[in-house]
Amino acid sequence: MAEYQLHCFAQSGNAYRAALMLNLIGANWEPVFVDFFAKGVQRTPEYREAINEMGEVPVLVHGKKKLTQSAVILTYLAEKSEKFLPQGDDERLEALRWIVFDNQKVNGFLGPYRFLKNWAAKLDPAAMEFLKARVTNALGIVDKRLSMHPFLVGERPTIADISLAGYFFYPAEEFGFDAADGRPHIGAWRERIRALPGWGHPYDLMPGHPMPKK
Ligand SMILES: N[C@@H](CCC(=O)N[C@@H](CS)C(=O)NCC(=O)O)C(=O)O
């Protein structure tokens, strides 16, 4: 059995943050498939009782420890491995500031936009327009930030960048646009992340892609 187990599925950018971090730090880990789409396993009382009361992936299991929320998982793994850890109080708070912004406004809107576009039973154009406007606004803010430093917090990649990576490597067709189009600093940052030793594509790191045909 591997040292770490990650409850996840391939299409989840929230889980990808944890999978990517595990790979980048060279951890001995294995995915545990959560059948989100066909069975909605994460919404069952059994999952909430035994795996995660919040009814979500990712969940990281490390021996007797069980962690949820990608930001918490990234922090735990950075502290354990001493990799991608912000240095000193100022950097730590700065990384946290970007992780919260990312969770709420960047991937926090990008993820639901992609989910609705690809998998919603019925599309509500007003909801899509609402989300798209917020995605555009958040991506503009990130692009400006990345015009000042190669990575979110400065010269080195930290867990803030790994959090931001959430949905940025999924195919552009799944969004109907490429986040780097007209945002060259996001494009350059994405290539810097792709070049990190241990980088892997979400569809290679986590199970469940392609989805079986109905
Ligand atoms: N803030 C959480 C978000 C986790 C999240 O929303 N995960 C989605 C999958 S991408 C989920 O499990 N949603 C539960 C559901 O829709 O039933 C994190 O960063 O870990």
What's the mean pLDDT score? 98
Q: Tell me the distance between the termini.
A: 33 Å
Query: Strand arrangement, largest sheet?
Result: 2-1-3-4
**Proportion of β residues?**
5-15%
| Number of DSSP helical runs | 8
Secondary-structure-based class equals alpha+beta
Q: Could you give a short account of the major beta sheet? A: 4 strands, mixed
What value does the Rg take, in angstroms?
17 Å
Q: Percent of residues in helical segments?
A: 40-55%
List cofactors, ions and other ligands: glutathione
Count all strands and give the number. 4
Shape: globular
Low-confidence stretches: none
Query: What is the H/E order?
Result: EHEHEEHHHHHH
Quick tags:
alpha+beta, four-stranded mixed beta sheet, 214 residues, binds glutathione, 4 strands
Short description, anyone?
The chain is an alpha+beta fold. The protein has helices spanning 13-24, 45-50, 70-81, 88-119, 125-148, 159-164, 184-194, 202-205; strands at residues 4-8, 29-33, 59-62, 65-68.
